[in-house]
Amino acid sequence: MLQGKVAIVTGSTSGIGHGIAAVLAAQGCDVMLNGFGDPSAIESQRASLARQHSVRVAYSAADMTKPGDIRQLAAATAAQLGGIDILVNNAGIQHVAKVADFSEERWDAVIAVNLSAAFHAAKAALPHMIAKGWGRIINIASAHGLVASGEKAAYVTAKHGLVGLTKVIAIETANQGITCNAICPGWVLTDLVKRQIEARAAAQGIPYEQAHDDLLREKQPMLQYTTPEKIAGLAIFLCGEAASTMTGAALSIDGGWTAQ
Known about the structure:
alpha/beta, Rossmann fold, 8 helices
């Protein structure tokens, strides 16, 4: 369906980003991976995606806190893969503390990675999309882009801002063949969340299964985690013709979290 398109997925060496990159590759996209991790593991991941799906897959270690690195990421994608058709702003970090105790350095880092990076990436990618008359920008926001939780001031602020940025880009590009939408997941069963569940089970002396369900119950009516593959499926839909008039939307995939 997306044969010959070129996609950048930030934060795609693990978790949600990796799931999206893999599904885009399976749809025929050439993909620029980005993120941190063990270089040999990343190279293995890159080579495996390219071989499995017969597409070109490149990698950039661009630091999402640095606008210059983000511009270089876009330039490298265009140079190596021939353009930029799809941008998935997925990179994100978290820090938990009450506002009175929140580190200023951590605030700046969360805002930089979760919000400012999406602006810089969109700014760099949009000229390529405008020139082609086609583009898709997908911002991975969160249920916390729509509602708040305590002790997550920077994350909630960044994700609310990302939803706002999504709307502005959608309005500005509405008649240029470009759409911009935000996906707002609830709990997603990534390796990071699995470790959280394990730590919670150990701290409370309860079975893993109970900790697994307790984490969900705090926020979601549906006691089921979303997976990176399900989020990737929604991203693929947003890239397709059926979604060509969907733009500026914040789409919840959260087990009813924000329906309450």
